[in-house]
Every structure is written in C-alpha cells, then in structure tokens.
C-alpha cells in the first residue's frame, strides 16, 4: 500500500468516527455553551475547566490546573494543561504536539439564559458557540476519535485551555509560553473563518506610553516662561499617526491623549497611549525606532519626551514551518473533498504567544463559524465532521514524523 493509499484509508476511518461522534459533539457543545464563562466570571470558567478536565482524564491525560498566582480584581479562572505521553521517543521520530483553546467568552453572566444554545438547521447559536467553545469541543472530539482509531504514535500530546484569552491572557500568558517551549508543533482551535479559511498569521501588538514633560507658567501673565506639553503632544500625535501607510503590514494608532489641569496654566505634562500592530517583529521594531526618533526631537522647545513599551504580544508570523503545516492541511482537505484556504488577521490570540516561543503554529482549526463577540455568533455544525477529521489527521501525521512522510 502506498503512502497516499494509507493516508486515504486513515482519513476514511477517521471521518467515519467523526460522523459517529457528531451527536455527542452537539450534546457537549450545548452543555458548555449553557455555562456562562465570561473572562471575569471565574466560577463559570472553572466549571468549563472541570468539564474539560473530566473528558481529558477519561482519555488518559494527566491534568494540571493552575490558579492565578497574583491577585486579580476582578478574579480570573484557572489555566488547564493536560499531558499524555506516547510510546515513541524523539529519536524514534516521536513529536510533541500542543493543542490550544480558550474557555472564556466576552459575554456577561446571564447571556447563556438569555440566548441559550439553539439550532436552526445546521447553524448553531449561543454565547461562545464559535469563539471558542466550538473549537474546544472539536479538539476533545479529535483526541477521542484518535484514541479509538489507534492512530500513529507520538512523543507527547498536550492540551492547553486558557481562562482569559479574551482580555489578553494576563494570568495564563506565562503558563502558555512555558508550555509551548519544547513543543514541535502547535494547532490552534479557534474557529475557522466564516469562509472556511484557516489562520496562517496574526499581527502582533505593542503598546506604548509617550510622556511629554513641559514647564508650567501663568497663561495670562508670563506664558513665554512656559513650555506647553500639550502642544508638543499634539505634534507627536500627528507625526505618529503619519507612520500609517509607510510600511506594509504595520499600523499605528494613538488611542488616548491626556494633557493639562487648568486652562490658565501652560500645560506641564501630557500623555499619549498608542499601539503598534505588525505582522512581523521587524515591523514593530521599525515603528518603535521611528517613534523614538520623534521623542528625541520634540516640536516645542523646553519639552522632553519619554517612550515606554507597556505591553507586547508577539506576532504569529507567516513562516516556512507554518506553511508546511498549511500544505499538509490543504492536502488532507482535498482528500476529504473540500478546498482549504488560509488568511492573516489583525486580531491577536493565544497562538501569538505560542508562536513567540518559536513553535510553528497553524490556527483556525475549529469548525466554521462567525459573528464572534456579538449576539448573532454562529457555528456551522455541518462542517464539524470534516474539520474534526482534518484536525485528527494533522495530529496523527505530525506525531510520528518518522513514519508519516
């Protein structure tokens, strides 16, 4: 039997198993959509974590629950990391694969009761049905059918479920980065785009603060003795915004400006809060250098400017290694009878943090859905069996690299 024939045989078996699990998938999805798990609802997030833990333990995973190590107000939920060792060592071709999803939604408590899980034909509705509960359940279903199929082995499978992705992963970031280090591949379980595309790249985001210091003076008696920080900040605002369009893939936005205390005082201090988004680390560094150059030469004599980076979420770059994952996914999709595309997005997620550790990542491997973060959020359940099969096949292929090529 040729490699292609073996692959097609495996896909046929995995697809049959995925279809057999369709009813259970819908029951599971309805169950966790019924749990309010907004980022700031730790009890709800931890109920989802309990649910995920039970299913992973049933599949033979060892589960570690990590509560936030620092005080948070409001409090946040646990981060879940589950591991299952395989038979192979790395020397034998075994690989460590990370599957990543998040348990939190953007919705407040009460949303699940107001908009309970429902089906209109194949389209499912409910808070978090696509982002990211549909992908979370898809990942667990893929692991279940792989266990039934006795697919090719691996060194280790790791399942990561985070409680705070929707608010920038403040408590799970360190866990995510530590978990990702040493992985060979990562598969993100966010929903596929509304047109079915996977996600090959996500822009990174760097947040900055520009603090302008001037010199106060009486605005009516001796304004000439002052140095107006607000005026210097206004020049900076215009100059920083003018960076847009100067480099492909880079956007800059000054979102907040604060200045002054009274109209009769020459403004002594001003502050600008801004973000830089870029599809590459190089693009972020380019923008930062350009802003630093502006800060060294303020437009108003007597003022000075200090630039601080307050946060950084690295880009998930479109790399050759990620493209290799996409090539395999496209081949599997074709064998399953559908075409598969990929897109880049300006939105960030946990896949950014994983990619920042140097691990090749392919995201959007959940079922097809859309209207995330709105009451109209939807998931096309007719895509579940194929997308679960695609995910399971990727895990099987990547896990035993020595026998898969």
From TrEMBL:
<keyword id="KW-0121">Carboxypeptidase</keyword>
<dbReference type="InterPro" id="IPR001261">
    <property type="entry name" value="ArgE/DapE_CS"/>
</dbReference>
<dbReference type="InterPro" id="IPR036264">
    <property type="entry name" value="Bact_exopeptidase_dim_dom"/>
</dbReference>
<keyword id="KW-0862">Zinc</keyword>
<dbReference type="InterPro" id="IPR017150">
    <property type="entry name" value="Pept_M20_glutamate_carboxypep"/>
</dbReference>
<keyword id="KW-0378">Hydrolase</keyword>
<dbReference type="InterPro" id="IPR050072">
    <property type="entry name" value="Peptidase_M20A"/>
</dbReference>
<dbReference type="GO" id="GO:0004180">
    <property type="term" value="F:carboxypeptidase activity"/>
</dbReference>
<dbReference type="InterPro" id="IPR002933">
    <property type="entry name" value="Peptidase_M20"/>
</dbReference>
<dbReference type="Pfam" id="PF07687">
    <property type="entry name" value="M20_dimer"/>
</dbReference>
<keyword id="KW-0645">Protease</keyword>
<dbReference type="Pfam" id="PF01546">
    <property type="entry name" value="Peptidase_M20"/>
</dbReference>
<feature type="domain" description="Peptidase M20 dimerisation">
    <location>
        <begin position="200"/>
        <end position="301"/>
    </location>
</feature>
<dbReference type="InterPro" id="IPR011650">
    <property type="entry name" value="Peptidase_M20_dimer"/>
</dbReference>
<protein>
    <submittedName>
        <fullName>Glutamate carboxypeptidase</fullName>
    </submittedName>
</protein>
<keyword id="KW-0479">Metal-binding</keyword>
């Amino acid at each position: 039997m040729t490699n292609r024939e073996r692959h097609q045989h495996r896909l046929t078996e995995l697809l049959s198993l995925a279809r057999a699990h369709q009813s259970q998938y819908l029951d599971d999805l309805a169950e966790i959509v019924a749990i309010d798990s907004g980022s700031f609802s730790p009890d709800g997030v931890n109920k989802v974590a309990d649910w995920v833990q039970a299913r992973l333990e049933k599949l033979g995973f060892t589960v570690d629950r990590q509560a936030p190590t620092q005080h948070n107000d409001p409090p946040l939920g646990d981060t879940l990391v589950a591991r299952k060792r395989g038979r192979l060592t790395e020397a034998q071709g075994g690989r460590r694969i990370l599957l990543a999803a998040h348990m939190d939604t953007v919705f407040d408590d009460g949303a699940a009761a107001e908009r309970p899980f429902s089906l209109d034909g194949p389209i499912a509705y409910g808070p978090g049905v696509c982002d990211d509960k549909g992908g979370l359940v898809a990942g667990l279903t893929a692991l279940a059918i792989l266990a039934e199929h006795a697919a090719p082995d691996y060194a280790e499978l790791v399942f990561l479920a985070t409680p705070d992705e929707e608010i920038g992963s403040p408590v799970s970031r360190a866990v995510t980065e530590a978990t990702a280090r040493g992985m060979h591949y990562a598969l993100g379980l966010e929903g596929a785009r509304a047109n079915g595309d996977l996600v090959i790249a996500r822009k990174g985001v760097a947040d900055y603060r520009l603090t302008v210091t001037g010199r106060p003076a009486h605005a009516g008696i001796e304004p000439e003795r002052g140095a107006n920080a607000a005026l210097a900040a206004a020049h900076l605002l215009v100059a920083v915004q003018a960076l847009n369009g100067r480099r492909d893939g880079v956007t800059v936005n000054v979102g907040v400006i604060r200045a002054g205390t009274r109209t009769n005082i020459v403004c002594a201090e001003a502050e600008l809060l801004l973000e830089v988004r870029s599809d590459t680390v190089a693009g972020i560094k380019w923008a930062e250098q350009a802003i630093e150059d502006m800060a060294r030469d303020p437009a108003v004599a007597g003022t000075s400017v200090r630039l601080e980076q307050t946060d950084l979420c690295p880009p998930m770059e479109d790399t050759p290694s990620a493209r290799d994952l996409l090539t395999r996914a496209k081949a599997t999709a074709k064998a399953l009878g559908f075409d598969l595309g990929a897109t880049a997005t300006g939105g960030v997620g946990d896949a950014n943090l994983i990619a920042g550790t140097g691990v090749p990542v392919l995201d959007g491997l959940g079922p097809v859905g859309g209207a995330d973060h709105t009451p109209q959020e939807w998931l096309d359940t007719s895509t579940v069996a194929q997308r679960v099969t695609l995910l399971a096949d990727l895990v099987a292929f990547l896990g035993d690299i020595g026998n898969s090529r």
